[in-house]
Amino acid sequence: MNFTSPNQVYPLSIAPMMDRTDRHFRYFMRQMTRRTLLYTEMVTSAAIIHGDRNKLLGFSPEEKPLVLQVGGDQPQELAICAEIAEDMGYDQVNLNVGCPSSRVLDGNFGACLMAQPQRVAEAVSKMQSRVKIPVTVKHRIGIDDRDRYEDMANFVQIVSASGVGCPSSRVLDGNFGACLMAQPQRVAEAVSKMQSRVKIPVTVKHRIGIDDRDRYEDMANFVQIVSASGCQQFTVHARKAWLQGLSPKENRDIPPLRYEDVHRLKQEFPHLLIEINGGLTTFSQVHEQLKSVDAVMIGRAAYDHPYLFATADQEFYGEETTPLTRHQVVEAMFPYLEYWLSRGVKLNSIMRHVLQLFTGQPGTKAWKRYLSENGYLPGAGIEVVREALTQVINL
């Protein structure tokens, strides 16, 4: 069932994570939560336009509501990607302005675009003009020396009037992701073109800053510019991104969390939908954050402790259904496993996402060990999963 409406607000979402949030992980999570907003892994605009779309973008109807996250800095390409996302049935398209990897920096997308809010605004505007689904932006609170609140606020203002971050080396190489926080005008242009092509929302995900550009003023400037392009939804990773000197893994832990900057952003841009991301691991923390922002995005905790989301629909969407037990979650996956196994997909490529389901429960080590030792073997099928289930208590 599709729960999207033109002004749909999802208080809880699971962050896009490379090599993690593929279609198999998303289907697995849908056995526990029907309502939480899910994201794809980040896909570059070039891959979407020139690659195998079914392989890269295909999904099951059960995975909705679902957002396609795009990495890139060329407004016209991003606008085409937004149209493709809408045509394929995605509920939103999100522009990554938060990834700080070197690949992203070299490609001029991701977090470095926070320094180019006008470019982001143009992209958002073009994307939003082409689709009816929302176009959103994910970004950091700052980059490098641009980490003042005012810089972030300016970014949001510019991009939201039109209608961004991953810090990995891959993103830096492609000039997308977190490096785009230094290019708010470029982000705004891209968002504008994307929004012009679709009716679904175009959103932006970004950091609070990059490198030495981590004042609140830097982030505010980014948001101001990009929001002027028409983007009305920003997902903010509450850590700045160091484009030089830190790896993507280090960028997830070393820069301090600055939730107060994201809260201030919501106060100063009350008309925008502000979602916070970074370091949040429990639903009690989510409830606390929802007092200050519109929505919360959980990343690594969702992958490491997936059963946390078994009560998400009850806690955040008012549903009265009874959560499945962990054993029932696995058994609900059997038809899905049979379908993909019959098409040549290896068991371990699906079940690797399910290894953490029993974390903290008696027998979890035996469960992981059995699947890890047998799931990759030629011909491994559901019988391997059934046997692994005997290693853990049915709770």
Automatic annotation (TrEMBL):
Residues binding FMN: P16, M17, M18, Q69, K138, H237, N277, G278, G279, G299, R300
CDD domains: DUS_like_FMN
PROSITE patterns: UPF0034
One Pfam short name: Dus
Catalytic activity: 5,6-dihydrouridine(20a) in tRNA + NADP(+) = uridine(20a) in tRNA + NADPH + H(+); 5,6-dihydrouridine(20a) in tRNA + NAD(+) = uridine(20a) in tRNA + NADH + H(+); 5,6-dihydrouridine(20) in tRNA + NADP(+) = uridine(20) in tRNA + NADPH + H(+); 5,6-dihydrouridine(20) in tRNA + NAD(+) = uridine(20) in tRNA + NADH + H(+)
EC number per UniProt: 1.3.1.91
Presence of keyword tRNA-binding: yes
Entry keywords, A to Z: Flavoprotein, FMN, NADP, Oxidoreductase, RNA-binding, tRNA processing, tRNA-binding
Cofactors demanded by this protein: FMN
Residue span, DUS-like FMN-binding domain: 164-382
GO molecular function annotations of the record: flavin adenine dinucleotide binding; FMN binding; tRNA binding; tRNA-dihydrouridine20 synthase activity; tRNA-dihydrouridine20a synthase activity
Record-annotated membrane-spanning stretches: none
InterPro entries named among the record's database cross-references: Aldolase_TIM, DUS-like_FMN-bd, DusA, tRNA_hU_synthase_CS
Residues annotated as the enzyme's active site: C99 (proton donor)
Site entry: Interacts with tRNA: N96, K249, R252
Function: Catalyzes the synthesis of 5,6-dihydrouridine (D), a modified base found in the D-loop of most tRNAs, via the reduction of the C5-C6 double bond in target uridines. Specifically modifies U20 and U20a in tRNAs.
Family in the record: Belongs to the Dus family. DusA subfamily.
Matching HAMAP family: DusA_subfam
NCBIfam families assigned: PRK11815.1 (NF008774)
Protein's name in the database: tRNA-dihydrouridine(20/20a) synthase
Organism: Limnoraphis robusta CS-951
